[in-house]
Design a protein that fits this description.
The protein is α/β, with parallel strands linked by helices. It is about 45% helix and about 10% strand. The protein has 12 helices and 8 strands. It has an 8-stranded parallel sheet with strand order 1-8-7-6-5-4-3-2. Helix 3 links the parallel strand 3 and strand 4. Helix 2 packs parallel to helix 3 and helix 6 packs parallel to helix 7. The chain starts with 7 loop residues before the first strand and ends in a 5-residue tail after the last helix. It comes from Actinotignum urinale. Belongs to the DapA family. Keywords: Lyase, Schiff base. InterPro entries: Aldolase_TIM, DapA-like, Schiff_base-form_aldolases_AS.
């Protein structure tokens, strides 16, 4: 059966930076405590939203140590161990275990071309190397490989994987995985990483969500989870409509794409709401400025978060 520790809302944490691109510890503490106070059920650190691929080993350690210290056991912490190949992922996993996280999250290997056999071996090697629950991170837009649902289920049934964090954009494949998992007694915790379709994921039986937008406004995601547990699907859908409108902060910026638009918008909104001190981005990504900030402020105002 799925691990009950990893159910509910697990925001992927934004990493606030100072103007000099150092870790802004004060802002980070404020953001983490704000989400925990809102009732989130866990945190996912060092994923895409956390700037994992922009971070040196030292920065990764600094982020993890800060999160584990601030959280202090109040909610489970999942740590990304994302890297190009297995040996590097195992190194990150051992560091994360030594710091005291509750679980780890790994992608398929990337850069060097890998097939299904290598992907399966990668997860098995990581599982054998550390004594922590292991989640597979399905994000083909970044690693250029879709994780096969039958492989994920097989590894879940064998105890290699504890769960899946799905950011594949493949809603049909996600639903198939939910159905296969249910038929086998739910060996996997299956979490959706798509902020604007959480209602459908819950209706299909997902165990939770990993919404980056919860860094900006966590409360509705917690309320939505509670409504889903109560079977109040009208409320679930109504909250999702509100959150879909708020998610427009990521599409109104002009002249930027990808990480700069998505996480850049989260950071900008958090700065405008007084959660973090700057919207600084890691090199080589430029932070949002000028009319893009005005556009994000407009969405925040329309969502009743700014006057």
């Amino acid at each position: 059966m799925a691990d009950t520790r990893f159910r509910g809302v697990f925001p992927p944490t934004v990493t606030p930076l100072t103007e000099d691109r150092e870790l802004d510890v004060a802002s980070f503490e404020r953001s983490l405590n704000r989400m925990i106070d809102a009732g989130v059920h866990g945190l996912f650190v060092l994923g895409s939203t956390s700037e994992v691929v922009f971070s040196t080993d030292q920065r990764r350690r600094e982020i993890l140590e800060t999160v584990v210290r601030v959280v202090d056991g109040r909610v489970p912490v999942l740590a990304g161990v994302i890297d190009m190949q297995t040996e590097r992922m195992i190194e990150h996993a051992k560091v994360a275990q030594s710091i005291g996280v509750d679980g780890i999250v790994a992608t398929a290997p990337f850069y060097a071309i890998a097939g299904t056999a290598e992907i399966e071996a990668n997860f098995r090697y990581i599982h054998d190397a550390v004594d922590l629950p292991l989640f597979a991170y399905d994000i083909p837009v970044c690693v250029h490989k879709k994780l096969p649902g039958d492989l994920l289920l097989k590894l879940g049934m064998e105890g290699v994987l504890t769960g899946v964090k799905d950011s594949s954009g493949d809603d049909v494949g996600f639903r198939f995985l939910l159905e296969m998992n249910h038929k086998e007694g739910n060996p996997l915790n299956i979490l959706t990483g798509h902020e604007v379709v959480v209602d459908g994921a819950y209706l299909g039986g997902a165990d939770g969500a990993v919404p980056g937008l919860a860094n900006v406004y966590p409360d509705p995601y917690v309320q939505q989870w509670d409504a889903a547990q109560a079977g109040d699907w009208g409320k679930v859908a109504s909250i999702q409509n509100y959150l879909a409108d708020l998610m427009r902060i990521t599409v109104v910026p002009k002249g930027v794409v990808g990480f700069g638009a998505g996480v850049g918008a989260f950071k900008t909104a958090m700065k405008e709401l007084g959660i973090i001190s700057t919207n600084q981005m890691p090199r080589p990504v430029a932070r949002l400025e000028g009319d893009n900030i005005k556009a994000i402020r407009q969405v925040l105002a329309e969502s009743n978060l700014l006057s």
